[in-house]
Design goal:
Blueprint: E1 3-7, H1 11-23, E2 26-30, H2 34-43, E3 60-62, H3 65-69, E4 74-77, H4 84-94, E5 100-103, H5 116-124, E6 129-134, H6 139-143, E7 148-153, H7 157-167, E8 172-177, H8 180-202, H9 207-227, H10 238-249, H11 254-263, H12 268-272, H13 281-294, H14 300-311, H15 315-323
Parallel strand pairs: 1-2, 1-4, 2-3, 4-5, 5-6, 7-8
Antiparallel strand pairs: 6-7
């Protein structure tokens, strides 16, 4: 039995806590919201973020990070990207020894533009065992034990294999790779393209247009990834193409749904009003554009998404500007 602390009580953190507890691991979940903690401990449900989903009764919940991580061998970082440094900083100060730290959030640190695994390495030390778990994985479907395949990534292959062993079940298949930066960028940037795909759907555009934005979106994700040292083949795999297709087309996608609302004429504020869960594509759009500029990489779709989200650009004008860009070869050199 492995002692696991899941830091973050959203839908994904709760689902992974349930998966691990039902596998037989000793799981403690930290959540900021008192009602989440109380609901899990008393009724074994997270009515706020995963309603209608009875959880393994063995899960313990707490709103004290030090209590959650005190004896943990594995720390699962499941906080929203903008909160990872603060939340996991507290976890790092309280964690014993050198736990295995697994990032399962999909985004970039907004201010420093850092992949979240690098934030965790800063907090836990350069010698820490830090890994990323990502791929096409809606929380609701994983909770229902629908067959799902994801990727565990770490620069040290032995660390990736440890994550594989911890998380793999008969319904949750885990592959490994040493391309952590590629896996992480794929998981973060696909949310931006999913917002774009949702906008197209909200405007009433068809499959041709959606296929174009998904394919060209994958091309710009790959360009940025390669500039940052990723293996281009990673973006043809689960953490790239797989997660992008899921998030850009799936009805359970928060980022796609946000885009649909904007395409139908709502503002970002109106589209986000009343939502408990975070649509990571909003913050990531701005971060991706700035990251591309720093590395001299064109990200035309991400740039137009940012213009629509933050500068009030009309979505149809954004589409026109993309379509009227200078003509060029499909493959970059």
């Amino acid at each position: 039995m492995t002692r696991v602390a899941v830091v973050g009580g959203g839908a994904w953190g709760t689902t992974l806590a349930d998966l691990l507890a039902r596998k037989g691991e000793d799981v403690t979940l930290w959540a900021r919201e008192p009602e989440v903690v109380e609901g899990i401990n008393r009724e074994h449900v997270n009515a706020v973020f995963l309603p209608g989903a009875p959880l393994a009764p063995e899960i313990r919940a707490t709103d004290e990070i030090a209590t959650a991580v005190r004896e943990a061998e594995v720390l699962v970082s499941a906080a929203p990207s903008h909160a990872v440094r603060v939340v996991m900083g507290e976890a790092a100060r309280a964690a014993p020894g050198r736990p295995l730290v697994v990032s399962v959030s999909k985004g970039l640190e907004p201010d420093r533009l850092q992949p979240l695994s690098r934030v965790l390495a800063d907090l836990f030390g350069a010698a820490a065992a830090v890994a990323v778990l990502s791929g096409p994985s809606f929380a609701e479907e994983v909770y229902r034990r629908q067959p799902t395949a994801v990727v565990a990534a770490a620069r040290d292959e032995s660390v990736a294999r440890r994550v594989q062993q911890v998380f793999a079940t008969a319904q949750f298949r885990v592959y490994t790779t040493t391309d952590a930066i590629g896996v992480e960028l794929g998981g973060a940037l696909k949310n931006v393209i999913a917002v774009a795909a949702g906008i197209l759907e909200g405007l009433g555009l068809g499959y041709n247009t959606r296929a174009a934005v998904i394919t060209r979106g994958l091309a710009e994700i790959t360009r940025l990834g390669v500039a940052l040292g990723a293996n281009p083949l990673t973006f043809a795999g689960l953490a790239g193409m797989g997660d992008l297709i899921l998030t850009a087309t799936g009805a359970l996608s928060r980022n796609r749904s946000l885009g649909v609302a904007i395409g139908q004429g709502r503002t970002v504020e109106q589209a986000l009003a009343g939502k408990q869960s975070v649509a990571e594509g909003v913050n990531t759009a701005r971060a991706a554009v700035e990251l591309g500029r720093r590395h001299g990489v064109e990200l035309p779709i991400a740039e137009q998404v940012a213009e629509v989200l933050f500068r009030g650009k009309a979505p149809r004008q954004a589409i026109a500007d993309l379509m009227e860009r200078d003509l060029k070869a499909e493959q970059w050199r």
